[in-house]
Amino acid sequence: MFRLDPRLAADTLPVGAFALSRVRLMNDAHFPWLVLVPARAGLQELTDLAPADRATLMEEIAAASRALRAVARPDKINVGVLGNIVAQLHVHVVARRRGDAAWPGPVWGAGTPEPYDDDDRARLLDALNAALPDLVQAK
Amino acid sequence: MFRLDPRLAADTLPVGAFALSRVRLMNDAHFPWLVLVPARAGLQELTDLAPADRATLMEEIAAASRALRAVARPDKINVGVLGNIVAQLHVHVVARRRGDAAWPGPVWGAGTPEPYDDDDRARLLDALNAALPDLVQAK
């Protein structure tokens, strides 16, 4: 049975779910940053997914990218599948701006997360939900 | 017309080509590290690709991951699409080992590349070509 890794759960806020992946918002006001977690048990690498699920995941990455672009108007989208610290397969989709807290370096391991304040969090979650009409409520 | 970005060309060595992507080896002996460059002009983001090409790219990422696993026996594969410095769409597929020069952080922006010596480069390119039977010669 799929169960979200506790570290991922602690670092992120629920947004909703695509057909395959749970969608979470990294609770770091430095970067508009979604995390997609394919809701299948025991996954660590992209190659652990069946090819059809991999294709679905790619389209979910594209949908998350488009939503971040609509909401945050970034200069670049960064996508990463690392898992060096949290082994459960998860995909980072991050809106980057020239001059942001880590630019032009990667966001991973760069500085200390700054949790959203209540207003900013609510506003961003509303905007993301509006930009992601295909989302369903995460189970 | 597609033309490999000069910075990517300078930092990497040719391995071959998949149906969509050129396959290059990052010339950094710290990490067995492939770079896939979809050979279409004007791409910057995954969302610039047609959905069918995105699915093909995903399978090429999986094939590169499997080849690196066969050749380098890593603890984790890291995949990244950044483009903050080189805008041309390219995908990093990196074999990571616990205790490697950047572990558990990301490889991007971590330290100075160490070019392969002639013997190690030849050996690795041979092993990658053997592990990637679907590769064709890059044009």
Description:
- 2 copies of one chain form a homodimer.
- The first copy, chain A, is of the alpha+beta class and 139 residues long.
- Chain A has a single domain (6-131), classed as HIT family, subunit A, CATH 3.30.428.10.
- Chain A contains 3 helices and 5 strands.
- The first copy, chain A, has a 5-stranded antiparallel β-sheet.
- In chain A, a hairpin with a 3-residue loop joins β1 and β2.
- In chain A, α2 packs across α3 (118-131).
- Chain A is globular and about 40 Å long.
- The two termini of chain A are 13 Å apart.
- The mean pLDDT of chain A is 95.
- β4 (76-81) of chain A pairs antiparallel with β4 (76-81) of chain B, so a sheet runs across the interface.
Describe this protein with a few key phrases.
homodimer, 139 residues, alpha+beta, HIT family, subunit A, five-stranded antiparallel β-sheet, 30% helix, 22% strand
The CATH superfamily title of chain A:
HIT-like
The overall number of domains of chain A is 1
Give the beta-strand count of chain A. 5
**How many individual helices of chain A?**
3
For the largest interface, the chains and their residue counts are: A-B, 32 and 32 residues
Major sheet attributes of chain A: 5 strands, antiparallel
Structural class of the secondary structure composition of chain A? alpha+beta
Spans of at least 5 consecutive residues with low confidence of chain A: none
Round the mean pLDDT of chain A to the nearest integer and report it: 95
What series of H and E elements makes up the topology of chain A?
HEEEHEEH
What would CATH call the class of chain A?
Alpha Beta
Principal-axes geometry of chain A comes out as globular
CATH architecture of chain A: 2-Layer Sandwich
